[in-house]
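Deviations from the work plan: none for this task. Representative record:
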Amino acid sequence: MTPAGWIFLIASLGFVWGLALWCFYRVLIIREEPPDPVRKFHSA
Amino acid sequence: MAQQTQQWGTRVGVILAVAGSAVGLGNFLRFPGQAAANGGGAFMIPYFVALLLVGIPIGWAEWTMGRYGGRKGFHSAPAILGVIGGGAVARYLGSVGVLIPLAVSFYYTYIEAWCLGYAWHYAVNGGVVNAAAPVAEQTQQAQAFYTNFIGATDNGVLAAGSFQTFVFWAITFSVNIWLVYRGISKGIERFVSFAMPAMAVCALIVLIRVLTLGTPNPALPDQNVINGLGYMWNPNFSELGDAQTWLAAAGQIFFSLSVGFGVIINYASYMKKKDDVVLSGLTASATNELFEVGFGGLITLTAAFVFLGLSGTAAAVAGGTFGLGFNTLPVVFAQMGAIGPAIGAIWFFMLFLAAITSSISMYQPSLAFFEESLGWDRRRATGLLIAICLVGSFLVMYFSRGSIFLGTIDDWVGTFLIFVLAMVQLICFSWIFGIDRGWKEAHDGAHIRIPRIFKFIMKYVSPVYLLAVFATFTVQNLPIWISGVASQPLAQGALALIAAVTVLLLVCVRIGEKRWRAAGLDLDGRIPAE
């Protein structure tokens, strides 16, 4: 494993883990919207 | 006949369902092979560029279009693209968004059954090769088992003595249909809420085992974990000057994220009116990348290198996705000693979970389409779906020799038409619906803002990038595919099946069009959504 290999490995893992953790953190702190009223479409 | 719209129960549920659709065998088997063959660590540069310029922007467009269509009471790609694209042309082209997941399901569930079958063999029989035999003999045993298991030597799965494959397919297909029949929230969402974390746990167990292998054979000190990681990650910058590397990276991102597949647009149509699509779309993409780079990039080739060395790993990469997964890895697990069967069982069960979370997303768009175009209830629509899938899947399983039938559907539908649908969707969203309107729609209820540069990227860069990849891909592959169809009756049969399904879907679009118009629905998108 070369130093450049380590750099690419750590940078790539850091990016995907960082992005995923940030996204899920943002998703989980948001209050869930109440469900929309049941709608009926396509009456034929 | 009336039909009730369904809804996702939670925001995390829809994110996991879309991520589950995207995470498949390709994350663990195709990605590492592509990276190693196209510059190692350097491959990640065009890979992440394609993620930012193509994958995430098209994903956002699909999420936005899906939720918009859902607000108008539509859940299928033809109806939603008719609304977004403003008329019949987009609506009929949208039938590709049902054809792709439906036709791919014909063979994908079959491959999923291989994963279940291998997991069962590891759990019950301790593997598919003799762990005491020399490596060369194990390689032959693995190949022979695989060839027999999938019936590659002759047509007729039952006649070839692979009855067990048919049993595993029947189990797999039944579970898929049952989950989809139970509905969006009670079936798909509940299942992915268990399957995705379970998949992550399985991947983590295998990853820890692989990273702690050290140097298993002191007589071969170079075959160690660090060098295994180096095989995958050491950059070869000269590959960046090769257009093939950029094409491979864009293709990997494109197929991995399930964009242009007709799934995201369907899943997003079941969101609540004010649900966020920007953060949700990004989170689903990030989850897929975590499995692909974070697990796929560390496990497969590292394990192969530690036990098979440089030449063995290179041969595994050359063997492609299935060669790596079903021929090479059984040999690798056989070298792991007493824990090998357990790791093999966990690995193939993880692949099964990855596959089933993808396959349920292939059945749902067709089911939604039959319900809303024919005005049928879920039970009747499921009956039609089962009938079509039984015909398609039996043909794929029966004509198993050389996987020609399967491969033809994969080439023409699972590859070529995905590019076509992605282009149609991008044009509908950015140019017909309008990027300004689409941008506003995407940010309605959004919890994060998309950087403004992406407005330009989605209107100009993504279509051009996609078109360039599509054109290069077509020039490289289309002549080979056409000559293959011309010379192989099995390939012609596969195309005839695709044509028959296409005609059926177009008839359904026509029936639906009449029904929606008679019901006074805004099927051409003339009125803004509420």
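Chain B has a mean pLDDT of 92.
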